[in-house]
Amino acid sequence: MQLSMTQAFYKNFLGHAPNWYKQVIVGFLVLNPLLFFFVNPYLAGWVLVLEFIFTLAMALKCYPLQPGGLLLIEALIIGMTSPDHMFHEIKTNISVVLLLVFMVAGIYFMKELLLYLFTKLLLKVRNKRALSLAFIAASAFLSAFLDALTVIAVIIAVGMGFYGIYHKVASGKDFHHDHDHSSDDDVHQPSRNDLDDFRAFLRNLMMHAAVGTALGGVMTMVGEPQNLIIAEKAGWDFSEFFIRMAPVSIPVFFAGLLTAYMVEKLKWFSYGAKLPEVVREILVDYNDHMDKERTKRDNARLIAQALIGIWLIIGLAGHFAEVGLIGLSVIVLATTMSGVIEEHSLGKAFEEALPFTALLCIFFGVVAVIIDQSLFKPVIDWVLTYEGKTQLVMFYLANGALSMVSDNVFVGSVYITEVTTALKEGQITRDQFDMLAVAINTGTNLPSVATPNGQAAFLFLLTSAIAPLLRLSYGTMVYMALPYTIVLTIVGLLMTYFSLYESTDWLYQMHWIEHHSASELSQPAEH
Known about the structure:
Elements: H1 5-12, H2 19-38, H3 41-57, H4 65-78, H5 83-92, H6 94-108, H7 111-124, H8 128-145, H9 148-170, H10 191-217, H11 225-234, H12 238-266, H13 277-293, H14 296-317, H15 323-338, H16 343-347, H17 353-372, H18 377-383, H19 388-405, H20 408-424, H21 430-445, H22 456-462, H23 466-469, H24 474-509
Helix pairs in contact: 2-3, 2-4, 3-4, 4-17, 5-17, 6-9, 6-15, 6-17, 7-9, 7-13, 8-9, 8-10, 8-12, 9-10, 9-13, 9-22, 10-12, 11-20, 11-21, 12-21, 12-24, 14-15, 19-20, 19-21, 19-24, 20-21, 21-24
């Protein structure tokens, strides 16, 4: 049957996405101008945000870049925001863009070392609960000194390595054969059941590691992008930031570890999946094969990558340059010492990160809409009407709720700017400002694990190549994050309410920190 031109256009529209999904997106595109021009621009802005979240939730049906991009293009055309404002938001977050472009590619060239180290860890630690705790603790530690996106890129590379090894063997091929691990056509029973069990096992580890990035990211000024903004506004250096957050972040970290242990032990929320013995045997065979086949040149590459890894940690912890620039140095060093100098070989490293980078730029456009339509202003004004501990709690909860539906970087930036203005205008004292800054930082970092759009690391995992392979959908991530969301939010709230006043008084008495005047806000704290 020959298609008409109209049918051909419709078939091409959003490719292989289901028909119902295409019709929903078309409905969104028709609805938005009507709401904006004839009903209420504020309402239209919130509807656009919810529509964008829908495209994220349906990421396995259609990559969010295309439908989300269409919605944003329409928003720009009808005047919800302007291209200049979108460009300003991208420039403001250029460090995150550079991080994705260069750091993720840099990790690609270190995957040989990462797979070597994590294969040893996986094979030596047979207890699943101990392995889960190791993954979440390692992710938290690394995220405290590196950026959470960098850490999740490492974990994704490791997961892809494990998955690719087993999938290749289960498809009847040897380790050295080329293989498309996106197709299960060559995987038959009983290997198909083992593959499903292995997917569940890797989903567990991916989610533990993702939550670990939040637990570590809240602790230090380099853990999350908004932490840097908050530290700059408050005039805190690395050590003061850590000390200020410790009354909340340390108890939350141990609560996170306890949660990981309990969900694994009780097999709640899809956790508790074991590594199938046949998969372990294949990984053992792969490890033995690689150890036997490894040449002096291979060992030299591993040593070089280890040294580059040390430079990566030192460079990021010392903040010697923007994260993306350090990632660029990793690319140069890793490819130089690995002999990868051909342009087509370099290009493969960027395939994973660039689609997400484009999606993140679309997200910054949605952020511009949120600002121009003042979508969060009523919430901010309402929270500032409270005082004392109630104000701390409301700031924490408001930041958490908005971070779940928006982005923790944007929410943290908006709130700390408003609080800084309130301090300069004399509406709050410096002590109030310090405690509110802690509530803003913890509020944006902890409850935001509830949804993938709350944290860039979670969103990166959702839209990465490994998510469809492991059947890790938006809904699955929300469901598996639920126990962490509940525990981290409640523990963080309790510590914010009960400990901030007491810990601040103690720190002043011990001379760990000094009072700052409003005029010192933009200057680093002196000790």
